[in-house]
Amino acid sequence: MSVYQHITGTFDLLPDTYAAGGTTFHSTAAWRALEQHIRQLAIRFGFQEIRTPILEPTELIARGLGGATDVVSKEMFAFEREGTRYVLRPELTAPVMRSVVERRLDQKGVQKLFYIGPCFRAERPQKGRYRQFHQFGVELLGSPDPIADAEVILFMLEVYRSLGIENTKLRLNNLGDAASRAAYRDALQTYFAPHAELLSETSRKRLETNPLRILDTKLPHERALLEGAPKLSAFISDEASDHYEKVKSFLRDAGQPFVEDPYLVRGLDYYNRTAFELESPDLGAQSALAGGGRYDGLASEIGASVPIPAVGFAAGIERLFIALEAKGFAFAQPEVPDVYVLGLDPDSEAVAFGLTQHLRRAQLHVRMPLKKASFKNMMKEATSSGATWLVLIGETERQTLTAQVKHLARREQTAVPFDALLDFLTQNA
Ligand code: HAM
User: Fold this and answer.
1) Could you give the CA distance from residue 381 to residue 383 in angstroms, rounded to a whole number?
2) pTM exceeds 0.90
3) Which of 68, 196, 230, 402 is within CB 3.0–4.6 Å of 209 for a Cys-Cys bond?
4) Which of 127, 135, 264 best tests ligand 1's pocket when mutated (most atoms within 8 Å of CB)?
5) Distance 140 CA to ligand 1 centre (A)
6) 137 C-alpha to center of ligand 1: Å?
């Protein structure tokens, strides 16, 4: 029988860092440290954690993100069971909004929520693009004010800056409100209709279903056609323009550089007004570290009886790792024990086991061998564990209630009574 393999586009995270297929998969210790850093920063910025299920109703995601988006039309891991349709969440904005509406959190005033967790999209896997990947992000709900947009954007940037990633580019665009977008959609369709045969198959489809996404094209001849196309900015209301100007002014006041990109449209349909992406030159083809924007219409789209203005962003953690690697970041290493306790005969092993539990209760990180081996091999294991101290217990030590304590790096050995062991280990650390 052949050995089962992980599903393409997913990966295991292991205690130690490993490389496979040209990608480095960092240790769970490195992931934990990075997640902890993000959590602490989010909390310092006044965001509170929300955890929603991995499974959501397919209808929520399809309605929320838009049926014509790539994510909904091509990339959902969806299935049906006993008449209910489920999807593995491809993102968290719609799920978070579902939760806020369902639990009436919006009635408690402005909500600042953050999350970290896995998402699933059936994309073609490559470096920085996976089928199970991890996002961190925030959603700020209940404020229509431009300062909320700036708050979200500045938090996003601070995550990268606090980790030493400074070479990013913030791109901004104003998508206007629903009415402007509908009018612009018609204008684009009218403009492109006579040129339809010059468009790629993807863009021809988008012309029917989602014309704004044509702005996203990387093909030079389509870019050239776009030069002559109507501009979204011409369709935007004074109110939406004013909002956008204020967001930019908050960013300028904060000393945050940005570039405006009239072709930035984002791949999900719920956005209005501010849209943004953060790019890194270290990511190659998958250049987006993070992206987000305002989505004032989403709550109503998924059935809320009152509108809930909202703005947020999400970022890929795998891409954050790639950007950190490029900087030569010193990733957290797997934890090493403070103490390794070795009982040299069966009776001593029982004493060692008791001591081990005692020291652990006192907050020390303690390991002991859990399999019979020769003295030489146990010593080898103790040394390679990286422990600071080795505590040895043999027949004499058992009888005198005194352990031999060795500092493994300094190679110093001391006899320490059992009842003084904890003090000795903590005071001589
Ligand atoms: P998104 O642009 O689809 O937005 O995804 C956000 C980030 O997730 C991307 O910039 C990228 O770093 C990462 N990402 C997306 N797909 C993959 C993948 N297949 N493999 C690895 N990383 C990936 C959203 O998801 C919105 N919910 C963001 C948002 C929050 N808008 C408002 N609030």
Assistant:
1) 5
2) yes
3) 68
4) 135
5) 17
6) 9
Give me the residue label for tokens 């390991």. 367
Using alpha carbons only, what angle is made at residue 251 by residues 250 and 252, rounded to the nearest 5 degrees?
Answer: 90
Q: Which pair of structure tokens corresponds to residue 83? A: 């008449």
Give the rounded distance of the alpha carbon of 144 from its chain centre. Answer: 26
Letter for the amino acid at 410? Answer: R
* pLDDT tens digits in sequence order for the chain, 429 residues long: 899 999 999 999 999 999 998 899 999 999 999 999 999 999 999 999 999 999 999 999 999 999 989 999 999 999 999 999 999 999 999 999 999 999 999 999 999 999 999 999 999 999 999 999 999 999 999 999 999 999 999 999 999 999 999 999 999 999 999 999 889 999 989 998 888 888 888 888 888 888 888 888 888 888 888 888 999 999 999 999 999 999 999 999 999 999 999 999 999 999 999 999 999 999 987 789 999 999 999 999 999 999 999 999 999 999 999 999 999 999 999 999 999 999 999 999 999 999 999 999 999 999 999 999 999 999 999 999 999 999 999 999 999 999 999 999 999 999 999 999 999 999 986
Which residues, 6+ apart, have CB-to-CB distance to 296 below 8 Å?
A: 144, 177, 272, 273, 307, 308, 309, 310
Q: Please give the number of the atom of ligand 1 that sits closest to the Cα of 295.
A: 32
Q: SS3 sequence, 259-292?
A: EECCCCCCCCCCCEEEEEEEECHHHCCCCEEEEE
Residue 136 DSSP SS3: strand
